Amino acid sequence: MKLIFGLLKGFAIVVVAMIAIAFLLPSDVSVSRSTLIAAPTEEIFPYVNSMQATEAWSPWLSRDPDVVLTYEGPEEGVGNTLRWTSDDPSVGTGIQVIIASTPNERVDTALDFGPQGLANAYFDLAPADGGTLVAWGFETDLGMNPIARWMGLMFDGWIGADYEKGLANLKALVEGG
C-alpha cells in the first residue's frame, strides 16, 4: 500500500511540475518559411490573394481527395472566405478569411479551427534579385492552456514542413506557368 501511495504521490508531483513549467513556456507561437520565386510580385499575388487560387498549390488539400470546400464572399481580396471539412485529422475542419490585402505586397488571413483555436497567417511578397521573396507565416496565441503551451513547442515541426511544401508547390506553379 505504501508503494502505491508513493507512486501516486510521485505522479502528482510530476503533473504539478509539468503544469507549472507550462506557464513558463511562451503563449505566442509563430512559424514562417520563405522562398525565392523567379517571377515579379504581380504574377504571384493572385495565388495568395484568393482562397480559390490556393487549391492549385495547397499542401493540405492533396491529403484528402474527399475534402469539402465552400467559398464565400468575393473571389479575391478582403472577405474572400474558405470553409473546409475533412474527416482526415491532418486536414480537419475550419474557416480561413482574408482580412487585409495590399496589392502585390501582403495578404493577412484569420483562421478558425473550431475547438482547436484561432490563428492568423500572412504572405509577404518582396522584390528581390532574381524575382520575389515570398514569406508565409503563422501566428497564434495559446493563452493559459498548459497543454497547448507544451504543444506550441512542436508547431514549427508540424506546420513548417507543410509551409515548405506549399511554397515549393507555389514556386513550381508560378515558374512553370
Plain-language structure description:
There is one protein chain. With 177 residues, the protein is an alpha+beta fold. It has one domain: START domain (Alpha-D-Glucose-1,6-Bisphosphate, Chain A, domain 4, 2-Layer Sandwich). The protein is 35% helix and 33% strand. The chain has helices at 2-22, 41-48, 51-54, 146-152, 155-176; strands spanning 28-37, 68-72, 81-85, 93-102, 106-112, 118-128, 131-141. Strands 1-7-6-5-4-3-2 form a seven-stranded antiparallel β-sheet, covered by helices on one side. α1 crosses α4 (146-152). It starts with a helix and ends with a helix. It comes from Aliiroseovarius zhejiangensis. It holds the Pfam family Polyketide_cyc2.
In short:
With 177 residues, the protein is α+β, with helices and mostly antiparallel strands. The chain has five helices and seven strands. Strands 1-7-6-5-4-3-2 form a seven-stranded antiparallel sheet, with helices on one face.
